[in-house]
Amino acid sequence: MKKTIALLPGDGVGQEVMRGAVHVLRSIEKRFGHDFDLKEFPIGGTAIDLTGSPLPNDTLRACQNSDAVLLGAVGGPRWDHSKMRPEDGLLQLRKELGVYVNLRPVQSMSALLERSPLKSEIVKDTDLLIVRELTGGIYFGEKKRDVDRAEDALVYHKFEIERTVRRAYEQARKRKGKLTSVDKANVLESSKLWRSTVSELATEYRDVVTEHLLVDHAAMKLILKPAHFDVIVTENMFGDILSDEASVLLGTIGVLPSASLRDDDFGLYEPVHGSAPDISGTDSANPIGMIMSAAMMLKLSFHMHEEYEAVERAVREVLNAGYRTADMRTSRFQSVSTSQLIDQVVYRIEEDAVSASLLELYV
Ligand SMILES: NC(=O)c1ccc[n+]([C@@H]2O[C@H](COP(=O)([O-])OP(=O)(O)OC[C@H]3O[C@@H](n4cnc5c(N)ncnc54)[C@H](O)[C@@H]3O)[C@@H](O)[C@H]2O)c1
Ligand SMILES: CC(C)[C@H](C(=O)O)[C@@H](O)C(=O)O
Ligand SMILES: [Mg+2]
User: Fold this and answer.
1) ipTM > 0.95 for the complex
2) 299 C-alpha to center of ligand 3: Å?
3) N or C: fewer beta carbons within 10 Å in the chain?
4) Can you tell me which residues bind Mg(2+) (predicted)?
């Protein structure tokens, strides 16, 4: 199957982990006989340096003309004081592409249990999905700035809440049948609208158990009892914060993938982590969040379920075999570089293909 995929490596480790996604897609292409048209375009700080804009028109047009987009990460201290921010390129891209809902799965992995700062009996049954509203709220409200006064408006329209919450309910139906809506309805008007919209929709999804939690309570419960959660649905900024918090359950943010979707098959796929300026350039970043984002693309945009399984299995085997980048390292294992971990994943995808064809010879 021919698919056009725009690659936006961005800044810092974004560039390093994107190589992992490309190698993995090439091995999937070979093994399953697909044709992936992969082309790179600049975004973020790299794009500011090249073109003066964090989202050049050519990049946006290429994304709009693709079947899906893979993004590494944007930002870094180099552009922290520049007039234009790399992050604005990413926000504009999400808005222009209309990818209003962001799925961030967080599932404990037995190989990583000892890396979590929390007790393994607390984190071992973690299997939750954060559904984050992505193109509204305080990120996109009107901003004003005087010398000694600043303003960011937090605006939500009911349709924005409704479409995101519906997607969350659909996910809950396919999973464990529980939805936790997170808001700050004891203080914010936008949260009161959020809560009443969820309550209305709950009557249409009676097969799903609905609960409401205030965001401060949710932040605490996520650490105290992560297995309590199935689907968490929340607004843009709460979702951003809670997903970094949830990464602590696994011990590193480097393994978390995400999918940003709209109502057709198109999607923007990116790891949850940022450009990690503290480790960029050292070939030590964890490429798993990026690789699993590419795997989510195969499943959600291209409906390639077997291909998704092949990547997921390869990643699991690599971890079980003891390969760890520095962020996943424990006293029992030496760490390997980003490139070495990528090679191991690719090797397993290809080795799997060889054993599958040998098996065919015998049956
Ligand atoms: N989607 C994105 O493009 C995105 C997401 C978050 C932050 N950012 C940007 O990234 C820059 C740095 O932000 P930050 O430092 O707050 O967050 P960050 O996620 O880049 O880093 C936080 C910590 O996690 C570690 N980390 C992150 N990714 C890792 C990986 N793949 N492997 C191993 N360790 C990893 C870093 O080394 C750092 O210690 C900022 O400019 C921010 O705006 C971009
Ligand atoms: C870089 C930043 C704008 C972005 C966000 O806040 O959405 C990031 O933190 C994320 O989680 O994707
Ligand atoms: Mg974030």
Assistant:
1) yes
2) 23
3) C
4) 216, 240, 244
